[in-house]
Amino acid sequence: MLKKFAVTNFRGFADRIEWDLSNPSNYEFSQYAIKDGIIKNAIIYGPNGSGKSNFSFAVFDIVNHLTQKNKQDDYYVNFAHAAHLDSPVKFEYSFKLGEYDILYVYTKDIGGILLTEELTVNGKKIIRRKEKDITYDASLVINKKAMNTLLHENSNQVSVISFLLASIPFPSTHYLIKLRDFVNSMLWFRNLDERGYIGLQTGGTNLEEYFIRNGYIEDFAKFLKDVSGQEFDFSLTKANDKYLTCQIGEIPVPFNLIESTGTRSLKLLFYWITDLKNASLVFIDEFDAFYHFKLAYAICKQLFSLDNCQVFMTSHNTYLMTNDLLRPDCNFILNDNKIKPLNQCTEKELRFGHNIEKIYRAGAFYVD
Asked: Which residue ranges form the domains of the chain, and what is each CATH number?
């Protein structure tokens, strides 16, 4: 699980901003949001322009960096803070992966080219690289000649970790394999004016064809009814259909002609839900942009019930800011280059019976 994340000089974050998921409070309610002493589910709030989307992008830099999974084409446009273009962008990840506490820190230049990286496992420095200078723990059996070739020919592009994973057949229990598997299974997505996603898969998919080919038509209809109350009688008009049709009376109508913007967003969400069994961390940006507030609540309930992965979201919907859904330590405010949970944004002791949405709207929470 991700324990902490920090980034410096990324886009709008000129100064270092740290997100600490390893320090939950002792609330007795909504305990499903905490696992192994780490926050598993959270919603990030903040005013427009506070950097919620950019922060989520920053969390997923490691996917661009270590995997061949799907990436955003324009990710490295406007990569560093405009006032510090000559300074590196620094990323710091702290993971708890089984028996291993892993700290991975690296820097990149304005174009996203790797400059330095450092890996610490259970408090022991394993790898330290600065440009062409590299030191590593003796437990790593490394082909020094190949490593030197890597450093001299590809020193600004290839991670030492990526090189090791591609070169050495580590056992499945090795910390580098666990790190690789976690990062390979991270997923970021959103559905605003344009759909987009980072990680977990490669390439694009026709969602309706995917439902048809994998036998998810009835499951999709049930999902729509359960979370939104909409009932659709889906049918196929020919053997190799790639698109869903709905029976309206005796007439089959293409589903994409009658689905609303919100329903189209639900279609994408259902697609990802069918694959979340393979995910380690899911981050949905502005997930409820097209949802009724009660629908957003129902979806959160379903996603937060997943035990196998961390699920995080950004939102403006304060209806979700309730102790019936999460806890004060799992609702974060991002503003002024800081991100803090609600219980650290007020001197008031927050209890289950408090209406934290009302307290938030009254301006009682502040990030300092």
From this structure: 2-201+276-361 (3.40.50.300), 208-262 (no CATH)
